[in-house]
Amino acid sequence: MVAEPVRVRRLTDLEGQRLQRIVRRGSASSVRYPRAMMLLASAGGNRVPVIAQLVQADEDTVPDVIHRFNEIGLACLDPQGAGDRPRLLSLDDEDFVAATATTGPDKFGQPFTRWSLRKLAAYLRKVHDRVIRIGREALRCLLARRGVTFQRTKSWKESTDPEHDAELDRIEYIPEQFPDRVPATYHRTHGVTYFHSCHSVGDDTLWGVNHRHKGAVNSLAALKSIRAARPDGAPLYVILDNLSAHKGSKIRACAKKHPGELCFTRPTSPGPTRSRRTSGRCGSSPSPAQTVRTSLSRPGPCTPIWAGATPTTAA
């Protein structure tokens, strides 16, 4: 009587798809890949000698894999190691370790808020009712089998608070009708409002006026208000940014009539021949150590002007 050839049972759709995926990718381990080829070749009707020659394996190995698949299914693809030493931790100890890892450290009187492998292993060695000695790698493998990981929240998570919606409604103070985004005004046909502020260093006061447009006329009006604040005619100094509206012909003409100096801040990209650094003391400052660093609009002395403050323009 001739024995029947060794063959795998009928593969299910899921088993066939998984075996084909392992063979096509070819990136599986050196054990899973040849075993998957053995099973697919046997399902295709090939005999044991042909399969052994295909995967370059011993003819005694192929029947063992086929019989193992018929017994436990796709679990036969995973390599089974030899017997290890006796277990040092019982199932009750593993349950205790998993329960401890999923409980906050503050519940056990520990001075930190989250576990790590080092902290958990050290705590398990100090438990009074049971002493569990386990290394970090063995502890990591145990927690991985139980699905326990120590990870920080790196993105928004869903809240488990049953009153989450009610609490969220109480803290939302922005009206629903307020738009999420306000469109930008790229075309301002009516000009931009500027605030000409004047800061008196000596008096430590600040005043100013709003203007609908930017120009030399409004800058001149702001400078006149500075001169009016010091009617004693003392020489004052003004520091302005390097704006064209601050250097008009009318401003320079009126600057010659009053004692003081008109200084401009250093431009963003000055040329080597158009500006030079200078320093001076603010005339209205009571402290001789009050110095300013300025850049003149052109080589030569500062243009005289009536000033004692720092007018600036701001949108």
Number of strands: 7
Reported CATH architecture of the largest domain = 2-Layer Sandwich
What is the count of DSSP helices, taking H or I runs of 4+ residues?
A: 10
Inertia-based shape: elongated
Proportion of strand residues: 5-15%
Structural class: alpha+beta
Query: Looking at CATH, which topology of the largest domain would you report?
Result: Nucleotidyltransferase, domain 5
Q: What does the main sheet amount to?
A: 3 strands, antiparallel
Radius of gyration (Å): 43 Å
* Arrangement of strands in the largest sheet: 2-1-7
What count of domains describes the coordinates?
3
How helical, in percent, are the residues? 25-40%
Low-pLDDT segments: 270-315
What distance separates the N and C termini?
A: 103 Å
CATH class of the largest domain: Alpha Beta
Order of helices and strands: HHHHHHHHEEHEHEEEE
On the 0 to 100 scale, the average pLDDT is: 75
Describe the structure.
It contains 10 helices and 7 strands. It is α+β, with helices and mostly antiparallel strands and 315 residues long. It folds into 3 domains: 13-77; 91-146; 194-314, Nucleotidyltransferase, domain 5. The strands form 3 sheets. A 3-stranded antiparallel beta sheet has the order 2-1-7, covered by helices on one side. Strands 3-4 form a two-stranded parallel ribbon. Strand 3 (236-240), helix 10 (249-255) and strand 4 (260-264) form a beta-alpha-beta unit. Residues 270-315 have low confidence and may be disordered.
